[in-house]
């Protein structure tokens, strides 16, 4: 029990930890609003306020987040030229997303002209979706490489090499879970981004957005939870 509480404290001390918690509030409230809108309009209105407040607070909390893209590129000096090029594209898209998200937030709270909100939302969502495509591509490439390495290690014959191989295989399998969680989160966020770029009945449905938001939040929650 104490260990779980300690991990929760560590999780909520992270910016990403708070973001995933508030994102859960945002999309749970979206689903509840959709569910009770017809029969309980007053209750639906309260949950709509909670959804909007959660979304705006997340945008405020992400102030300056676009700078993390530079740090992500700096931390990967050993990557292959192909992966570095893909990382540049992925982080460039994410940086556009977070940068223009600032202006979207300011337009929605009335500090800037509210008519700018739609344009800022489009640019932000386009950068977000562009970045997520390349983040997923990176994860698929790494998953393929790690799967090939796991198969090679599984063929180790000598006892001393086999022990090291098994340790490496365990690490690869742990990394695989994290990469699959990242793919799930990025795919879910891509659907949310597409709803802003090209509104359509599927992506813009409250259930689609709600489930996508929760998949993204909970996959991120899993990845950020202290080990």
From TrEMBL:
One of its GO terms (cellular component) is peroxisomal membrane. Homooligomer. Interacts with ARC5 and FIS1B on peroxisomes. GO terms for biological process: peroxisome fission; regulation of peroxisome size. PANTHER family: PEROXISOMAL BIOGENESIS FACTOR 11, PEROXISOMAL MEMBRANE PROTEIN 11B. The chain crosses the membrane at residues 82-100, 120-143. Involved in peroxisomal proliferation. Promotes peroxisomal duplication, aggregation or elongation without fission. Pfam families: PEX11 (PF05648). It is found in: Peroxisome membrane. Keywords: Membrane, Peroxisome, Peroxisome biogenesis, Transmembrane, Transmembrane helix. This is Uncharacterized protein. It comes from the Eukaryota. The lineage of its organism: Eukaryota, Viridiplantae, Streptophyta, Embryophyta, Tracheophyta. GO terms for molecular function: identical protein binding. Its main location: membrane. Belongs to the peroxin-11 family. It comes from Punica granatum (Pomegranate). InterPro entries: PEX11 (IPR008733). It is a multi-pass membrane protein.
